[in-house]
Amino acid sequence: MNFEQLVPNVYYVNITNGLKMFADCLGFVIGHNEIKSDQPFCVLNKDRLSIYLFEHAKLAKEHNPEFRFVTKNIEEIYEKVSKSHPEFLHPNLKEVTLRPWGAKEFALRDEQVCIIIQQW
Question: What InterPro entries does UniProt report for this protein, alphabetically (predicted)?
Answer without folding.
Answer: Glyas_Bleomycin-R_OHBP_Dase (IPR029068)
